[in-house]
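look at this:
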Amino acid sequence: MGDDGVMRTLIVNGTMLDTGSMTLVGERHLVLEGDRIVDVTESRPTVEADQTIDAAGRFVMPGFVDAHVHHVITSVDFPRMLRESPVERALGMARLAEGMVRRGFTTVRDAAGDVSGLIRAINAGMCRGPRIARAGRCLSQTGGHGDLAPADQLADGVCACQLHSNELSHVADGPDAVRLAARAELRAGSDFIKIMSSGGVASPSDPFDAIQYTADEVRAVTVETDHRHTYTSAHAYQPDAIMLAIENGVRCIEHGNLLDTPTAARMAELGVTMVPTLVTYQVMNENGAKFGLPERNLEKNQGVFEHGQRSIEVARSAGVELGFGTDLLGELQPWQNREFAIRAELEPAADVLDSMYRVNVGLCRAEGEIGRLEPGYSADVVVANVDPLANLAGLAEPDAALAAVVHRGSLVFDRTG
């Protein structure tokens, strides 16, 4: 380290991806000091370094950004997960967080769950993990996508309090209850709020095509996020659920697999972003049963991937801005990078990378902090063995594709030697 105690890292000789122009700009050399990029040069720097990564013949880009992950869902064997002790849950969350960084995802947007303790643990160096933009606990109606209670639990009676919570969600009914839940999450530091506007694959009791929450309930939440200068996102699949959400102030749609042309046109008109998460449905089909995903959830997942593939063209044709997400749960998260290969079949590589490095950065509210290799930005760097513009699908296998990862100036691994 230098006399000031700051770690200096050089990344030299790599072909750099300029994410502003989405072009490869030739061989560049990066100087990292502490957790910042301090210089990007065409000639090799003469400064002394504590460590040097030789990226010759490789491609240098900012750390990856995933706009839809879950840390609190540590297993797809949901009955077993609900029996986990706090220690088991914490260790499982830490394992998932470290795995994301090792796959190159240095920033993620956690789309539901109480991850406040995990963020503190990462920041304190107790475990390795990505920078996390968080929704906190999502908001779900009783019997909605975030209600984890078994359906037969209602036999014991219905609580009149209108609001109860678990680690994933606040189950809240009525405008007053959802307003209180939103205010509580914003007070706790959530970067945005997520609501459940339709049924889903992973929930225990709601039909996939159910529309959830009323206009008054949605508006109660979006007014609160507007007042805090942030936004509300909604889990929604079918057009009716999407339309109900966006007409009442929701500014981001998660998934959107059943999107149709009129709804996409309205989304574009209102400036609503959509975050597709295609890999989760494919991997659930292939590997869910092996890891204990219940049969009912496997049945609900049938056909969702194919619908999602079609939604990309519908959204792009209408001018809807797309993010880049994965939504993989528990044991399925190691397939996170496969989303690159899926999207590469549907869109030009430059568009997919723009979804990750521009749209996702905005969703994380991290403009000026991440997504570029420029002085002043966070020292989050991926060195890849494959050209991301010519072979985006090559990033799907991180062990083969990634030669080095640096997160906030700290070396995660270096395989270039």
The chain has two domains: 8-63+369-414, 64-336. DSSP finds 13 helices and 19 strands in the chain.
